[in-house]
Each structure stands twice: as structure tokens, then as C-alpha cells.
């Protein structure tokens, strides 16, 4: 616990048996529970997770990265989480940073905290492919312009949420694919959530999960679509389903900022 808040780490997993134990062994003691959702892996990810003492949920069929996270957050809230930290089990992000990123939420400083690979300039040093780095910077520039934010990146897989923010988001309307992560940030920005970042060194190696060029291109197009939908919603010219917020969103943003996004 941190500041009396229950800290739950969720690990959306697919074929993560080779790196899972290394990741879990470095989780700090402040973590109250770790939940792994196995998205119908072809290896023994679930068995390794159970051996390590994790709470395990297995999808009977592959639901995709976004679909996996939907289960992760639903289970974490069901288990009484006050702060939910999403960490990839492929050891690409440093588990030791769970403490500082969770603290940012537990003390009420932010609603959403992002572990940025860009702050500190460690992305390329950690082995990020050059084409991914360039696309990351271009997409981030476009999104900052369209969304009026000033984030260093929108594409990290290491982040922490307050319970209140997760409950206020229509997560089930988001994509089941990789663009899920980007839609969540767009939703948080639109509802006026407080968003912070910390520098997070990253590692790229053969066992770490990564999407190929074709999937990266599809993701990039989805990011641009999300940004345009955000801008239209901001201008009141129409709102996509992902920007139809429940009444609980008023606890996060200012009521006068969201007169047209709250779903009646």
C-alpha cells in the first residue's frame, strides 16, 4: 500500500513465459496484488504465473491487446484496487519504477501517470528501432497539436490509473487492438484528467514483445483517427462512442468543460 491506497499491478500477457518471472521478481513490496490476464497464449504463461503466486485470468480465445486490458482493469477494480499499474510482462519496462509511478496516483497528484521512454533520451539507447522512434515523435507531435496537450509520448505500455479515472472511462467501447492505449489517453485529456509523466528506460531484445511494421502502420492510422475524433468532440461537431462518458466523468473533469460529452 501507499498512503493507505491498495496498489494492484496488472500484466496483460501473451506468450510471456520466458520473461514473466524476471519481471515479477523485481516488483516492489508496495504491490498488494498482481493480476495476469493470459490472452490465450501458446506457451505456459498461465502456469508460470500461478507458480509465482499471481492472480490469473485466462481468455478462452485471443481478444487482442486492448481486449486483454479491458479484462485487466475490470478484475483489478473487482479486487478493490485504488491504484492500478499496467506493466508489460516482457521486461521491456523497469518493474522497480512501479513505486514512483503508483505514488503519483496514490497521493492524489495525478489521475493518470505515464512512464515515458522519451524523457531522458533513453529510447534509442534502449534499442528502440529507428523507424519506431521517428513514428513515435511524429505521431506525438500531431497529437499534441490536435489535442492541445504537451505529453512527451502517447504510446507507452507502462502507466498508472486512479480507480476513479478507470470507472469514469467507457473502456468497453475502445478498440480491442493496440490503439486501445491511445484512446485511453485521448479520453483522459478530454475529460480534464490530471496527467503526469516520469522517465522510464526501456529495453528491446528478442524476447520482448513488439508489433511488426504492418501492425505499426495500422496503429498509426488508428492514432490519427482518434486524434481527429478528439478534435471534433472538443469543437462540439460530433462525438465518437469512445467519447460518450458516464456521469462519473464529472468527478474527474470540470463540469463546465464537459457539457456535451456526458452521456444521459
Characterization of the model:
- By secondary structure, this protein is an alpha/beta fold.
- It has one domain: Alpha-Beta Complex (Spore Coat Polysaccharide Biosynthesis Protein SpsA, Chain A).
- 37% of the residues lie in helices and 13% in strands.
- The protein is built from eight helices and seven strands, in the order E-H-E-H-E-H-E-H-E-H-E-H-H-E-H.
- It has a seven-stranded mixed β-sheet, sandwiched between helices.
- Helix 1 (17-25) packs parallel to helix 2 (45-51) and helix 7 packs parallel to helix 8.
- The chain is globular, with a radius of gyration of 17 Å.
- The model has no long low-confidence stretch (mean pLDDT 90).
Q: What is the secondary structure topology, with strand pairs?
A:
Layout: E1 7-13, H1 17-25, E2 33-38, H2 45-51, E3 55-58, H3 64-78, E4 83-86, H4 98-106, E5 112-116, H5 130-147, E6 159-162, H6 163-168, H7 180-190, E7 195-199, H8 213-235
Parallel strand pairs: 1-2, 1-4, 2-3, 5-7
Antiparallel strand pairs: 4-6, 5-6
Low-confidence stretches at least 5 residues in length (pLDDT < 50)? none
Distance between the termini: 36 Å
Shape, please?
A: globular
Number of helices: 8
Biggest β-sheet strands, sense, barrel: 7 strands, mixed
Structural class, by secondary structure, is alpha/beta
Approximate helicity band: 25-40%
Mean pLDDT comes to 90
Strand order of the largest sheet: 3-2-1-4-6-5-7
What's the number of extended β-strand segments?
Answer: 7
Order of helices and strands: EHEHEHEHEHEHHEH
Known CATH architecture: Alpha-Beta Complex
What is the CATH T-level topology?
Answer: Spore Coat Polysaccharide Biosynthesis Protein SpsA, Chain A
Determine the strand fraction and express it as a percent band: 5-15%
- Overall domain count: 1
Radius of gyration: 17 Å
The CATH first-level class comes to: Alpha Beta
The CATH H-level superfamily is Spore Coat Polysaccharide Biosynthesis Protein SpsA, Chain A
